[in-house]
Request: fold
Amino acid sequence: MRISLNWISDYVDLSGHSPEELALKFTMSTAEVDEVIKLGDKVSGVLTGECIDVYPHPNADQNVLAKVKFSDSAPPVEVVCGAPNLAAGQKVVFAPLGSSVVNPETGGPFKLRKTKIRGVESNGMILAEDELGIGDDHTVTIELDPETPIGLPVHDVIPLNDVVFEIDNKSITHRPDLWGHYGIAREFAAILGRELKPLETEYPEGSGDPLRVEVHDFDLCPRYCAIVLSGIKVGESPLEIKCRLAAAGMRPINSVVDATNYVMLELGQPLHAFDSSLLGGDAIIVRRAKKGETITTLHEGKSADIPVDENMLMIADAERPIAVAGVVGGKDSGILDNTTRMVLESANFNPTSIRMTAQRLKLRTEASMRFEKALDPKNALDGVGRFINVLSSMNPGLVMESKLYDVCQLPPPPKPIALTREACDRLLGKVLPGEEITGILTRLGFGVKREADSFEVIPPSWRATRDVSIPEDLIEEIGRMHGYDNITPQAPKVALAPPPQSKTRHLVRSLRKLLAYGLGLAETMNYSFDSTQVLKAIDHLPDDRVYLRNPITEDQEAMRWSLVPNLLRNVATNWRNTAEFGLFEFGKIYRARKDAKPGELPDERFHLCIMLYSREPDRDLFPDLRGIVDRLAEFLGAPDLASVEGELPELPWIHPKKSLSVKLGETGLGYITEVHPSTGAALEIEGACAACVVDVDKLAEKHDAKPGYEPIPKYPGITLDVAVAVDENVPWSEMESTIRSAGGKYFRNVKFFDLYRGEQVGEGRKSVAFSVHFRSETGTMKMKSAEKARDAILRTLEQKLGAVIRTS
Reply:
């Protein structure tokens, strides 16, 4: 935002301080000044003059020749000019040879030299606004007051000299009162301890009632002020107004629009002007948009037909919408060159509603940027009075045709905030006298009642919207105005204690190293959203998806329910370029809770998903996934972590015959599966694909991450593979516990490695294959002893579980 010091000086005395000093004071107490810009220094040697004669150019129909007198002691000079408004007797701004003006194309200074234009020498230039840097109009010359003497430096007639502070908008987002020059002036008055001059907002009120004003939603529009004005003469604004607008970065347009922009830049209160002859039914109705409604808007000279929805607030007449509230006006209701009667709008809108509307329309305007900061409702009244004062100075025949319409349901006044000097001293780290605390808050506009070392503070209306509400806010105000550089820095005394450790985070870091460096898999990091297109393709749209109110794209309308679909999409993107690869991803999944209360967050779980792919369709990736699970168990020192028989979720990508549960003892953590062929086909994946999903939160919760030490065996052991047929309903966990109990003194470990169902084992039966490791602590393990121990295990399995050893 650009702040003009000339404008600030209208309301507070800045004398005795250089612009650089003022910028430093403002930076150290309020917000950083990014740049100090000095205006008018590109224009030098330019004078006032009089055009004493105008006659045709002999070689150019579009140009004329003019005689200009700019000094009583020098003869008139001849210049070439192309402005159609130039006439004899006009007082003009003249740049003689050797003077400097603004180059409209580059913005830099341009020094005038004698030049020929279509064969005629031009000994200077009659200037337009863009050549002084106060506008972008190059078509007409500047016409000065007829009483202006000639030969005066232009800076004595037009206030070109100014200093502008460039302030980053982000640094004042929390301060809606600083989005106008008067709020900045109020801040400087507090910083310098000087008087703040009042705004001129008084005006003679009308008594007519020609308009009907209705507000249908006070939640979105707490206050709506309107007034009917007649006697309007739309024309150019005075040069002083144009200079102010240009210094603040606003383009002058016409007297009425310039007056609305002037008030917005001064008060931070956006206004809107309607041509009353273009309103239907002499009515202003503030309502939500109707379903299917559209409006033709006009923004920066461009019109557009935009659809609106029921969540957007509209300003309408009796027939149609005429503006999107707080964002942009309609094309067919704005001020025209022949407007003589108008309706002025000055309102207060819900900041959240305005921001959401601007985002949906992808249209952020000067008005919406201010309304979304939560403006002071009182500003709406001041905006009307200030506009009438500004426009009356340009339009003396202005008539207040109606009364002031003020339709409102205002929020309750701000509550007092209790503050103690002890709290202030403790947080600031410095003891401040009570008189200084009272003085600072009073200068800033706060109401203060003091009793000993306690203060009851009432925020002013311009700080009470979202800015100041708790004692810490007041202490921040006191600290910044006292000056943080006046407070000796002291390191706070804090108890040193190790921060609580996240088991999940520690586990993820360890597993990431194993998967990437140890197993050579590639880590992916997808968005935390599901692709609805992918889920529809694989026929999986669960009821407990967590939908977004404001999705970044139509396809990513919900948080991800599982990591698998995104990794499948990664495979679909890469399989044509790489014949074989493995991916893994750590991330949260989100599922809506059943019977969730309003405001209750969804269920979030941290998962790991591993995805293997091979372009060879017959490649069996299932053993590879089981091997990865075994490697995880070995790495974590968790022998009871295994892929075993168990209950599986009903998901479209799970293969009915090539899938197992991943368990830690009796606790289910996830599953491994060959991706169902129909899922791969739906995503146009050719080849074999397998997935593993593990609930990392549950693994971290159930597994003791402390590694135990196991000495290197002194003697080699023997591993024997066994396959037995059991009933379908016998789980691996029961088989494993039976094996461990029957293993004997040489038994060390058992690992499941294969599952088979088919004709060879019979209906209702399955073949389970596992490896049993035997080792002696006193010598090399003998095969005879290992086989004897194995046979004991098989007998126990047969007796307890009805297992039959398979030999083929």
